[in-house]
Amino acid sequence: MTGAHFHPQRLHPRYGGLVNIASQLPGGLALASKTCGRFIFDQQPSSSENPSAADLEAAVVAVCGFPRTGTTYLQEAASQALGAPERCWKNHDPFSIPVYIDAGLLTLIPLRDPISTISSWSVYNNDLPSLSIQRNRLLSYTAWHRAIQKYVKSPHVMLVGFDSLGDSSDELLDSVREMNEGQELLLHMQNFPSEIREELKAPYVEALNDPKLSGTLVGAFRVYENLMRETVA
């Protein structure tokens, strides 16, 4: 690993603006992580959050995504396809992606629109539905997705749209199979909409659509839509 990391779930919300600015400068996000990490992150990542050499040797597929974008879903799909959970590594750190690429792993990156992602993440974090928190959550989202742009042309990276995860994506699942010849995939997954969850998300969605956040939201959607053009599913 490079020593830099960006686990969004550990970033204190007030520093969303800092990482967003840093992500716009060459090497800026890595520098911010290395120099300010102990201040901007609530905790340093544990050993289980980034792969060791042994983890990489055992793995065939990696999943790396922003929180609440379908990473667990994809991990389960890949683990079932490959017949063993240790063959798929999952985390939320974009600095892990070049490590996965160098190890020859197929890296799946799920993409979900900013409003759905941040409202779901805010429910998960029990955030106050304030404009300042939602702005900083959006800025961290933008910074994270900007950080992965350099990897999307790699043959070892596959972007997957969140809305396709409830479907059987032959191209996605075939790619997982190809990384482990001879595996048969028996996969049955369903998405059950939760009315209660939608009710919980409503105040955050309202805050995210506030005109005062329009510029921040437009920036997040711009990065998201540019990446979505590269998706396979």
Can you describe this structure?
With 233 residues, this protein is an alpha/beta fold. The chain has a domain at 50-176 and 194-228. It is built from 10 helices and 4 strands, in the order αααβαβαβααβααα. The protein has a 4-stranded parallel β-sheet. β1 (61-64), α4 and β2 form a beta-alpha-beta unit. The radius of gyration is 17 Å and the shape is globular.
* Rounded radius of gyration (Å): 17 Å
- Looking at the structure, what is the overall shape? globular
The N- to C-terminal Cα distance equals 29 Å
- The string of secondary-structure elements, in order, is HHHEHEHEHHEHHH
Provide the structure class.
alpha/beta
Q: Within the largest sheet, what's the order of strands?
A: 2-1-3-4
The pLDDT mean sits at 86
Strand content bin? 5-15%
Regions with pLDDT < 50 over 5+ consecutive residues? 179-193
What is the helix content?
Answer: 40-55%
Enumerate how many helices there are, as a single number: 10
The description of the largest β-sheet is: 4 strands, parallel
Q: Would you count the extended β strands for me?
A: 4
Concise structural overview:
The protein has 233 residues and is of the alpha/beta class.
Detail the topology: elements first, then pairings.
Elements: H1 16-23, H2 28-40, H3 53-58, E1 61-64, H4 71-82, E2 88-91, H5 97-102, E3 106-111, H6 114-125, H7 131-148, E4 157-161, H8 170-178, H9 195-208, H10 214-228
Parallel strand pairs: 1-2, 1-3, 3-4
